[in-house]
Design goal:
Helix Hairpins; single chain; elongated; Heat Shock Protein 90; 399 residues; 5-stranded mixed beta sheet; 7 strands; Globin-like
Amino acid sequence: MPSIEQHLKYILVTDDDVASLREVRDLVEVHADAFVSHFYEHLFSFEGTRAFLSDENKIRILLKGQRDYLLSLFDAKFDDEYYQFRRMIGHTHFRIGLDFKWYIGAYARYLDFYTPLFQKHFEGDDARMYRITGAFRKATLLDMSIVLEAYHEGDKAALKASQAQVMHQEKLSAVGLLASGLAHEIGNPLASIQAVCDNQLRKQPDPLVAEKFQRIREQVGRITAIVRQLVGYARPTPSTWQPVVISETVHSALIIAKLSRSAKTVDIDLQIDSALPKPWGITDQVSQVFLNLFLNAFDAMPEEGGKLIVRTLQKDASIAIEIEDNGAGMSTENLSKLFTPFFTTKDVGKGTGLGLHVCHGIVKRHGGRMSAESKLGKGSVFSVILPITDSPPEGASTQ
């Protein structure tokens, strides 16, 4: 992995540059508020960034953060802490969908605002002015290189996640073919068993015998339903948008998840409102989100005494689906990394760390959001929020 030392070498940042930046730190701070105000006026002129600046409290926090960020350039403490902080910002903004062009635009605003100020302030001392503006240019390029590195890593991780999702769909397709074959091969024997049971029950046998035949018939029906569910879930479906019946989608995913060995002893409490409005979405992708969350919850719970609560509710113009378990829970540190690609708390070989990242991406593409609350040793609550809209996203296929 690249380091701050490598970036400093790439940009040719010297000790003289560091000293030059610190030399004008006080001057920069005098004009910092004016710059930040100018900078955010610029951001408000674009629809793409205006969407991120709708909350007044958030704006105040961002203004202070931008001011501190600017001054840290001139503190010139180019150490590992500085490097990791810049990387974290790049990763965070990549995750929320803020394109890297806004970063490049931000550094252009830095140069446009402060370079003329330095030129005017050091007028008559060309050597000093060139030294200061050169150091400032290197500092902005240093930041830009670190941020773009973080974006590049995000792109690579997203590509791997997409590839993993394609592989997952391929596996599901194979399962669908196998399940279809299985359904065909066992369909006739099951039909024969069911016919024998029906024939014996029509003869009105002894009640104890009738109960046994009825039980056999019920289990045959259960096997048939499970195979049908597997075939339906694994069969590839077109990525078409349609109103999604949340109650049916949850039930469908839960039937598959309950086939997991870890689900056998879990008490499941469904608090689902079947009359909820239908959000627009791609049904099999929404189902994939629920299936992943159910399987994760089952894995996290104890072998005995596990409890899963699935509740739905309407919040203003959105639908919330909450999945609560009494499993192992997570630390605050792990919770903050939950949707990061390749991060997993599972044992080696039991998880890729891509499941929640893929789920987060699916929900985001549906215009929604995912969140999680957890306490170590107490359990977790995952929330999926989907918007209620009159129509699918622009350009979405509904055929």
